[in-house]
């Protein structure tokens, strides 16, 4: 059928998507959204951030002047645009299969004065990746600002999603690994409208924000059917919102359908990120 939202789009080749995520562990779609659309996303996030800061336990500290907030998807006016974007759909299908599920929606806010994070992955590698050599989850990011060097860009060490950290800390590689990551480090100067997709296992860090502006970035977590990240999250949508979504979009939401949204218990704390490093 000719559903315009879900074309089998040959612009997005499975082989290049797989090559990018199994190779570097990071790919991007430049200019996926208009700047106007991103301004709206930024405004929604600013509003939700204020709300979260005013709620006890509403925002998780990830180092000085750096927060993570998990949200109710429908509070973003553009949420359906994100999860039905043809590039996002193509990437999820290619890497996670036809029954992928959206398990997490949130945002990171590294504010002025945020410090350099230690190199890390966002959770320990699952058996599927370590032994099965397969990725069963992805993280998508959408910046709400044009990132400059001074804002402390996101930095990634390509290809390191396959590193086996067994024997040490499973999320924070010890000093014996730093040479490897420093040698590979790439700064991502994302611009408004860009979407990126990465394995959250690819070693990465936020760097020091020396500017006067914060750098809020939207985060979408997606699992393959055997992914277990849903366990850490509790996505909720109201019945009205759920029913407003096309069946094909709804099918991929690993969310509880509720009459009223419950406050979110911010669960995805990363203990090792509470402190920061100078630099
Ligand atoms: O600064 C960023 O964009 C990412 C931060 C990050 O990796 C984290 O808090 O887990
Ligand atoms: Fe991270």
UniProtKB/TrEMBL annotation:
Keywords: Dioxygenase, Oxidoreductase. It comes from the Bacteria. InterPro entries: Fungal_Metabolite_Diox (IPR051961), Phytyl_CoA_dOase-like (IPR008775). GO terms for molecular function: dioxygenase activity. PANTHER family: PHYTANOYL-COA DIOXYGENASE FAMILY PROTEIN (AFU_ORTHOLOGUE AFUA_2G03330). This is Phytanoyl-CoA dioxygenase family protein.
């Amino acid at each position: 059928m000719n559903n315009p939202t879900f074309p089998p789009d040959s612009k997005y080749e499975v082989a290049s998507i797989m090559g990018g995520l199994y190779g570097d562990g990071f790919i991007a779609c430049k200019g996926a959204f208009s700047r106007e659309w991103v301004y709206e996303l930024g405004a929604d996030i600013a509003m939700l951030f204020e709300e979260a800061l005013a709620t006890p336990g509403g925002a998780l500290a990830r180092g000085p002047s750096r927060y993570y907030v998990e949200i109710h998807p429908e509070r973003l006016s553009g949420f359906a645009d994100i999860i039905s974007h043809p590039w996002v759909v193509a990437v999820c299908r290619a890497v996670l299969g036809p029954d992928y599920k959206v398990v997490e929606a949130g945002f990171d806010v590294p504010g002025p004065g945020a410090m350099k994070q230690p190199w890390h992955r966002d959770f320990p590698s699952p058996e599927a990746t370590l032994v099965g050599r397969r990725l069963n989850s992805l993280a998508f990011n959408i910046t709400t600002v044009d990132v400059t060097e001074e804002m402390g860009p996101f930095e990634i060490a390509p290809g390191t999603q396959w590193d086996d950290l067994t024997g040490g800390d499973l999320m924070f590689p010890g000093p014996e690994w730093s040479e490897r990551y420093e040698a590979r480090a790439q700064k991502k100067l994302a611009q408004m409208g860009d979407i990126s997709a990465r394995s959250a296992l690819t070693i990465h860090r936020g760097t020091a924000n020396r500017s006067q502006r914060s750098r809020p970035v939207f985060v979408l977590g997606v699992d393959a059917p055997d992914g277990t990240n849903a366990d850490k999250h509790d996505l909720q949508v109201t019945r009205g919102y759920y029913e407003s979504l096309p069946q094909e979009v709804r099918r991929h939401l690993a969310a509880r359908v509720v009459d009223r949204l419950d406050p979110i218990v911010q669960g995805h704390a990363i203990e090792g990120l509470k402190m920061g490093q100078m630099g």
